Amino acid sequence: MPITPGRLLIAAGLMLCAGGAGAQTRTATPAPPERYAPSSVSYVCDRALAEAEVKRLTGTGVIAELSQFPPNVSVIVDKRQWDRTAAPLRRRWAQDVACATGEGQGSMLRTVTSRARDTSCLGSFSDADLKD
After folding, report:
1. Could you tell me if 73 and 101 are in contact, meaning their C-beta atoms sit under 8 angstroms apart?
2. If we measure between CA atoms, which residue out of 84, 96, 83, 70 comes closest to residue 122?
3. Cα separation of 45 and 50, whole Å?
4. What pLDDT score does 56 carry?
5. How close are the terminal C-alpha atoms of the chain, in Å?
6. What share of the chain is helix, strand, coil (3-state, %, to 5)?
7. Per-domain residue ranges for the chain?
8. How confident is the model at residue 109, as a pLDDT?
9. Is there a contact between 75 and 113 (Cβ–Cβ < 8 Å)?
10. Helix and strand tally (H, E) in the chain?
């Protein structure tokens, strides 16, 4: 049986649980309440805020990797957190990624595709619409 990154992660998780370190958790940095407006308010691209939000999501482990292949942006996300998050917040994440990668600066349309680590597609965002 070949050693794959997934098997290494499973083995590391088992070692942490067996060693009693499984109870230690990473504290999440909450987003500022003013960052998430009601869904009735249209999204306005503020590149500095969007870049800060993408950095925060990367720091907390929600976003594992972000790759740009114009006009597409591929985002590898933590599937567990993606599934637990409400649709409006997932849409906001995709809008922030689109804004941070340059959508607000130009007229080129982008498609932000969110994928799990196993490459399964979790959602696709384009034209201000997130399709799960």
Report:
1. yes
2. 83
3. 7
4. 95
5. 34
6. 40, 20, 40
7. 43-132
8. 65
9. yes
10. 4, 5
Domain at 43-132: CATH code: 3.30.300
Q: Is the backbone of residue 20 left (phi > 0), alpha (psi -120 to 50) or beta? A: left
Q: What is the pTM of this model?
A: 0.64
Q: Which residue has the tokens 């384009």?
A: 126
Residue range 66-117, pLDDT digits in tens: 998 878 889 999 999 999 999 889 989 988 888 888 755 555 567 888 999 8
Q: Single out the residue of 50, 61, 48, 56 nearest to residue 97, CA to CA.
A: 50
User: In terms of pLDDT, which residue wins out, 45 or 11?
Assistant: 45
The DSSP symbol for 119 reads -
Q: Which two tokens stand for residue 12?
A: 């590391």
At 39, which amino acid appears? S
Scanning the structure block, which residue is given the tokens 């997932």? 90
